[in-house]
């Protein structure tokens, strides 16, 4: 890792989504603030192939693939989220939440903390509870600060 890297030394490359494009264009004037470039510098030695931003992007006025370095507070699991929900609401709320998260299997991955809930997902869940009249704060099992990867 370079001494002046902006990403923390403890960065786990496994956080990078599969097929997320990396950038190795050292001539870019925004490389110091771009997640794609900074993460590329931290690629494991065994990684020999990945999607990348092509140098032809330098012909554009602005890079359409620029991704600012951003740390967000992700929620890890929600095993107790329905504990205080009335029985008459439970099935409908769970069905809506599972639909929003992408189905039954994915629902359980989020519930068990195998997938992290990004801030906008947490907000959606809070609004779901409000729609059903639950005004208490929605509390997730745990929280973790992570780098955000957007496309």
Going by helix content, strand content and strand pairing, the class is alpha+beta
Given as residue ranges, the uncertain stretches (5+ residues, pLDDT < 50) are 1-5
Distance between the termini: 24 Å
Q: Largest sheet, described in full?
A: 3 strands, antiparallel
Radius of gyration: 19 Å
Number of strands: 3
Helix content: 25-40%
Q: Assess the beta-strand content as a share of residues.
A: 5-15%
Number of domains: 2
Indicate the overall shape: elongated
**Which series of helices and strands comes N to C?**
HEHHEHE
The total count of helices amounts to: 4
Give the strand order, joined by hyphens, for the main sheet: 2-1-3
Average pLDDT confidence is 91
Describe this structure in words.
This protein has 151 residues and is an alpha+beta fold. It folds into two domains: 1-69, no CATH class; 71-147, no CATH class. It contains four helices and three strands; from the N terminus they run αβααβαβ. The radius of gyration is 19 Å and the shape is elongated.
Sequence-ordered SSE layout with sheet pairings:
Blueprint: H1 35-40, E1 71-76, H2 87-101, H3 104-111, E2 116-117, H4 119-131, E3 142-147
């Amino acid at each position: 890792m370079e001494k002046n890297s902006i990403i923390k030394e403890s960065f786990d490359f496994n956080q990078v989504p599969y097929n997320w494009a990396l950038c190795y264009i050292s001539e870019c004037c925004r490389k110091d603030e771009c997640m794609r470039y900074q993460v590329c510098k931290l690629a494991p030695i065994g990684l020999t192939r990945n999607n990348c931003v092509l140098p032809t992007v330098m012909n554009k006025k602005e890079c359409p693939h620029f991704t600012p370095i951003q740390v967000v507070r992700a929620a890890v699991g929600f095993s107790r989220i329905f504990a205080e929900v009335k029985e008459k609401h439970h099935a409908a709320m769970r069905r809506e939440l599972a639909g929003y998260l992408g189905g039954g299997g994915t629902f359980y991955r989020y519930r068990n903390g195998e997938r992290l809930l990004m801030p906008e997902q947490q907000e959606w869940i809070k609004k779901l509870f409000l729609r059903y009249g639950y005004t208490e704060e929605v509390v997730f099992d745990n929280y973790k600060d992570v780098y955000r990867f957007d496309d």
